[in-house]
């Protein structure tokens, strides 16, 4: 038996007026997911423990079978694992977004326009990160480039500081959400350097959001995660463009497969991710593939219902169908789980802790039901899988503690 989990980050939503009061998942043309649902199980899963922030970090830990209340030590350290950052026990890691601020003065009156700087390329972001980091006069901080707008700073002998997430405040004046020193000083310095950098002047001329400021958040210490194979007895691969998920893979002993052209955006290499999973399962002897697709979350943060619908349709036709057809052709028995980690409603442009719909399909089953995969029908099914960590054991057919 082979096992696949396809996670559409932030895919769940709420009814949208421009989509005839349907959610993007309801509105999207998803014939493959609906076919699987008609021969499988749908229901709700609670991925965010009560009292914890609804982040992709806590939610994906939960989906992977790890109770965030026990294992979570901060988001940035997981990303640091992915990019090979050495961390001492006394280090504190911070996510550094390259964000777009407007030109208002003073600094505190600026508005945050975009948390991702127009989904800036990894290559351009690395140039801008270095340009600003080289001007910082704080020897306790070391900066490391990541993927696209997502980067890392390590504070030697630092302390945990709870800082605001930039995607929670899009379109808002930043003054109430600014950090204390030394972070505020570094933000202002980055603005001075980046707002007139030639790359940003070119972006402005081309009508693309500038990557003109650092934004610090996601503090944490070095994580200590149990081995996935020891917990579940499955040899696993992680397939994602996002450093957070790759870090979770590294931290849990999964093999991290890097797919060329996978960038975390709407135009990522969907087929490459599907093919990487099939190769791992059918050629390389792995039992389980975790395929993470970031695009629905990014489109939710952008507040674009139409693009979110498109990302879900791509997920269905270019990942899920490709995986299903490849496994069917192989003759292997398999179980396939599809779900989001959390909702990212286009109305709010940020995450919520609401339960998410899941779809579980078993190729050896003979179920036939008149149902489709979406939030409304999952809620109406009456199936509630309980806390997030339950779903992995449910996928593997193991008893839930």
Q: What structural class do helix, strand and pairing data support?
A: alpha/beta
Instruction: State the CATH topology of the largest domain.
Output: Alkaline Phosphatase, subunit A
Largest sheet: 8 strands, mixed
Distance between the termini: 22 Å
SS element count, helices: 15
Rg from alpha-carbon coordinates? 21 Å
CATH superfamily of the largest domain: Alkaline Phosphatase, subunit A
Shape: globular
Number of strands: 13
Structure description:
The chain is of the alpha/beta class and 401 residues long. It has 2 domains: 2-73 and 224-396, Alkaline Phosphatase, subunit A; 92-220, no CATH class. It has 15 helices and 13 strands. The protein has helices spanning 24-27, 31-38, 56-63, 68-71, 75-82, 122-133, 183-194, 198-205, 228-232, 243-251, 270-282, 295-302, 305-330, 375-380, 390-396, and strands at residues 2-8, 41-46, 92-101, 112-114, 141-147, 150-155, 213-220, 236-239, 255-257, 288-293, 334-339, 356-362, 384-387. The strands form 2 sheets. The chain has an 8-stranded mixed beta sheet, with helices on both faces. Strands 3, 4, 5, 6 and 7 form a 5-stranded antiparallel beta sheet that branches. α11 (270-282) packs parallel to α13 and α12 (295-302) packs antiparallel against α13. It is globular and about 65 Å long. The mean pLDDT is 96.
